[in-house]
Every structure is written in C-alpha cells, then in structure tokens.
C-alpha cells in the first residue's frame, strides 16, 4: 500500500512538472507571436528578476504589499471566525448576518475598491479595508458550516459532563473545524494576495500592484512579467511552505484529539 501511494505521489509530481513545462512552452510561443513590447519571453523575464530585486524600490514595494496582505488576511479571517462561532450558537444572529454575508460574497471586488478609494483615499487604508471586507465572508461561512456539522450527541455529552468552554472548544469544536478552516485559510491567503495587488493597481501609491501599473505604463514588459512571477512565487511559498505543513500538523493534532 505504501509503495503504491509513493508511486502515485511521484506520478503526480511528474505530471505537475510537465504542466509547468507546458505553461512555459505556451508562454514562449505567445511571446514570439506578440513581440517583446507586449509580452516578455520566459528568458527575458528571468533576466529581469535579479535586476528588479536589486533596484532601490523593490524592497519598499514588496514590503508594503506583504504588510497589507498580512494585516488584511489576519484581521479578516479573525473577524469571520469570531462571527462564525457566535452565529453557529445563535440562529437569530445567523439570520441577521445572512443578508450581509450574501452581499459581500456577491459584490464584485472592483466595486469595493472604488468605494474604498472614495472613503479612504489612496494608500494602505483603502487596500487593507477592501481586503478585510473580502476575507470575512469566506471564513464566516466555513466556520458556521463546520460548527453546525458537529455531532449534537457529543455536544449534549459535553454539557452532561460539565466541560468548560475551553475544553469544549479544544476537544470538540476545533477538531471538527480543522478541515474547513484550513481550506478557508488557504483560499483566503492566496485570494488576499490577488486582492491586494488588484487594489494597488487601481489606487495605491506603493506596493507590487503599483509597480505593476508603472511597468505597464512605461511598456516595460520584462519588469511587468518579473513582478508577476515574483507574486506567483509568493503565493506558492504561502501554500507549500506555510499552509500545507500547517494543514498536516493540524490534521495530526485532530487525530490525537479524537484518540
């Protein structure tokens, strides 16, 4: 069984590498047809990355975007998680929040950016506000669904044995919330990067999105695609270096809690 699983994992990684090579091939062919003014080739982009990273504005723009992503995602997910816990215990609160949840999930992010620009002007306040607002509903929905799927008999048993709120949260609710919350956190972090960059492109005075907009306005396609590759690298690092190990760790903790 282990050998078969190992072979399946190796086959999946091999196909993943093949997919990356296919993307690079399509990218190269598209660059040959469109020309260097509209699309830099993979080689030109690779040469532009170290030049970009050694420029004077790179650290400022990258640091501003990372700070906005960290604040927006952490605050938005915290609010969504807290509201989800409260709404799962109160049908009245859940009904009260449902129209707002629907509104935030239905409204296009670009509309929120425009409104935030009117309210907060250009800068970090607008970007962080928009990111927080877009992060809340996803975490809220996953938290409520996870809480409502907890076995009612186990909840009643925890009350019979007089479990305190911390013991009930640690041994009953959090293990049940591990799977939906880790999935929601993965979506939130990757989506948060996209939202921050989009908001910076439309109305910020610093950040990776601001640098993208500058590169577009000067037709510097090599720098533009270099920023795109670096942003993709950030998303990959968040997923594979941070979130997937966290998901495995929480899955192991869930099994230990049920044991």
UniProtKB/TrEMBL annotation:
Record-annotated ABC transmembrane type-1 domain positions: 62-242
Compartment(s) of residence: Cell membrane
Keywords, ordered alphabetically: Cell membrane, Membrane, Transmembrane, Transmembrane helix, Transport
Membrane topology designation: Multi-pass membrane protein
Pfam families: BPD_transp_1
Presence of keyword Membrane: yes
Transmembrane segments annotated in the record for this chain: 69-88, 100-120, 126-144, 172-197, 224-243
Record's signal peptide: none
Family designation: Belongs to the binding-protein-dependent transport system permease family.
Protein name, per record: ABC transporter permease
Source species taxonomy: Bacteria, Pseudomonadati, Pseudomonadota, Betaproteobacteria, Burkholderiales
């Amino acid at each position: 069984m282990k050998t078969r699983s190992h072979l399946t994992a190796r086959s999946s990684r091999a196909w993943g590498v093949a997919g990356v090579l296919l993307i690079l091939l399509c990218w190269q062919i598209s660059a040959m047809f469109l020309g260097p003014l509209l699309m830099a080739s993979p080689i030109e982009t690779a040469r532009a990355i170290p030049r970009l990273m050694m420029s004077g504005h790179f650290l400022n723009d990258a640091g501003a975007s990372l700070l906005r992503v960290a604040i927006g995602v952490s605050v938005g997910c915290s609010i969504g998680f807290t509201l989800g816990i409260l709404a799962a215990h109160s049908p009245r609160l859940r009904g009260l929040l449902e129209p707002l949840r629907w509104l935030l999930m239905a409204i296009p992010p670009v509309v929120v950016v425009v409104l935030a620009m009117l309210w907060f002007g250009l800068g970090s306040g607008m970007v962080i506000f928009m990111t927080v607002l877009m992060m809340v509903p996803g975490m809220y929905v996953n938290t409520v669904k996870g809480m409502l799927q907890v076995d009612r008999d186990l909840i009643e048993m925890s009350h019979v044995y007089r479990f305190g709120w911390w013991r009930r949260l640690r041994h009953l609710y959090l293990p049940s919330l591990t799977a939906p919350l880790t999935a929601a956190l993965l979506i939130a972090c990757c989506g948060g990067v996209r939202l921050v960059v989009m908001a910076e492109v439309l109305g910020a005075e610093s950040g990776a999105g601001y640098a993208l907009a500058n590169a577009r306005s000067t037709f510097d396609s090599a720098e533009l695609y270099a920023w795109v590759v670096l942003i993709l690298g950030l998303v990959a690092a968040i997923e594979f270096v941070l979130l997937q190990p966290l998901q495995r760790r929480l899955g192991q903790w869930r099994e230990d809690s049920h044991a």
